[in-house]
Amino acid sequence: MSIQSKIDCPDCGTPIYVESTLLLTGKKFSCPNPDCHTSISLSPSDVNTVSKAFGQFEKIRTEYTRHTGNVE
Fold first, then answer.
1. DSSP states along 33-64
2. Who has the most CB within 10 Å: 37, 40, 42, 48?
3. What domain of life (predicted)?
């Protein structure tokens, strides 16, 4: 499951939209502000930690949905 998140650029504050599955593959996301050349990505050493966190989130979301019938 891919989750889209918004992260404010650490340099200019412009929203950067990030897809979780692409982030886990090492993709860099660039700030859309044409005057800012900042990009964000995960360091290779953090990919495993973040991947486990997404897995846990998906497990909790699935259990919640099963128990409540609620998809959000």
1. -TT---EE---GGGHHHHHHHHHHHHHHHHHH
2. 42
3. Bacteria
